[in-house]
Every structure is written in C-alpha cells, then in structure tokens.
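Summary of Year 1 activities. Much of the first year was spent building the evaluation harness for sequence design. The harness presents a backbone, in tokenized form, and records the residue chosen at every position. We chose the following record to illustrate the format because it has been used consistently in internal testing since the harness was completed.
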C-alpha cells in the first residue's frame, strides 16, 4: 500500500514539474530571431517598430543575414524617391542617402542604437554600361534589397548581390508591395548594367525590370538587428502583435 502511495506522489510531482517547465518555456522572453520566417512561420514573422511614434509592421525574413536578423518594411514608405539624379551606382545615391539620413532619423532613438551595420554586396561602378559582373562590398545600417535577394535568376544585366531569401523563393508574388493600400513599384539596390543610369525595380504586378534612375519609385527599407534583440507581445486594434523592446 505504501509503495502505491509513493508511486502516486512521484507521478504527481513529475506532472507538476512538467507543467512548470512548460510554463517557464512559454513565458520566457522572445527574441526577434525566434519569429524569423526561416525559424518559425507559425509566429507570424512580423514585428512592429516605431517610426515617428507610429507602430509600423516589419517582416522578419531571416536570422542568417551576416549573422544578424534581417527585417523588411511590410509596406512601402508614403514618399516616393528618385534612385539618383543620373548614375545607377548605389552608394551615395539619392535613395541611399535618404535611407541612412532622413529615414534613419525617423526611427525610435533606442532602436537606432540597436541596428547592426550590415555588409552588403553591390554592383561595382565599373560594371555600369558594359553589362559587367564586378561587385563590391559596402557597409550600411539601412539599405534596399537586391535583385538576387528577392529570388530573381541571374542574368547578364544584373550582378549577383547576396543570396536569395527563402521568403521570396517560397512565393515569388511576395515581391509585390503596397503604398497606402495600392500596389506600387519599388526600387531595388541593383544597377541595371546595360546602361550607366538605370536600376532594377519591382512593378505593381510583380514584374522586375530596369528603369531610369531619375524616375520616382516606392522605397522599402531593410535593416538588421542582433539575434538576441528582445520582443514582447502587445495588442493593436484587438490583434495580438510583437513589438521590439526598446524600453
């Protein structure tokens, strides 16, 4: 009889330990890498970030971008931008300066300090106008995605910049982006090397092609956070969401 009671007590203790373990696991602080698309799609791979005091959704695309977590704004910025005044070379272009100066200043100050400096591949200026294949590396906090990263196949007018992202490879219609709820064309950072004054962009229907840098297109900022950056759950308009912890 005593042995039966002892067994029952042990089972009860084990059950309690199991419940405690689940509870602790459930309540642990999540990090931005936990909800990345290539880690756990079930969590929605979306986190909200403050821009000018407004909470804006960003897609958490991968935890493997130069060792950090890559975020991409879900929708385009309200303002359209030229790629540049003439040259298709990305560094120090109008859109590059806008992202790292004006847009960067719109982010929450504590978040700005958490953004990692990313090393990105870009088309070398020497490749422009001759369909060259040379690339170089640049370091940026805020940047545009490349032709390669959105899953487009290599071609003679587009240098290979980085590696394809699983998020777009799983569904290529995901390159379509919206500005004020309307599908709108948006810039990539990749030069269209047939000319020296063109860059690639995504059209409203998802077609990818080259265009003059002096035209206005939508802008979709991307940047990286360190994997251990904490996030927390909150509610916006009755929906449960994740926010970056910047308190």
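For this record, the design step produced the sequence shown next.
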């Amino acid at each position: 009889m005593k042995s039966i009671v002892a067994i029952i007590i042990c089972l009860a203790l084990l059950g309690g330990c199991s419940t405690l373990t689940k509870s602790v696991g459930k309540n642990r602080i999540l990090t931005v890498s936990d909800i990345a698309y290539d880690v756990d799609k079930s969590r929605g791979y979306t986190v909200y970030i403050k821009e000018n005091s407004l909470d804006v959704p960003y897609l958490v695309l991968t935890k493997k971008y130069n060792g950090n977590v890559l975020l991409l704004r879900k929708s385009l910025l309200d303002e359209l931008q030229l790629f540049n005044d003439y040259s298709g070379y990305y560094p120090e272009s109008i859109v590059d300066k806008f992202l790292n100066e004006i847009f960067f200043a719109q982010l929450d100050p504590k978040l700005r300090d958490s953004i990692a400096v990313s090393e990105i591949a870009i088309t070398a200026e020497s490749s422009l106008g001759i369909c060259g294949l040379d690339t170089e590396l640049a370091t940026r906090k805020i940047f545009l995605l490349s032709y390669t990263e959105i899953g487009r196949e290599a071609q003679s007018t587009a240098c290979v910049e980085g590696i394809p992202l699983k998020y777009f490879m799983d569904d290529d219609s995901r390159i379509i982006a919206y500005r004020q709820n309307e599908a709108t064309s948006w810039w990539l950072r990749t030069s269209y090397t047939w000319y020296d004054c063109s860059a690639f962009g995504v059209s409203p229907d998802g077609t990818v092609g080259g265009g003059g840098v002096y035209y206005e297109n939508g802008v979709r900022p991307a940047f990286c956070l360190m994997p251990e950056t904490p996030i927390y759950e909150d509610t916006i308009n009755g929906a449960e969401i994740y926010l970056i912890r910047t308190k």
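The radius of gyration is 22 Å. Quantitative recovery figures across the full test set are reported in Table 2.
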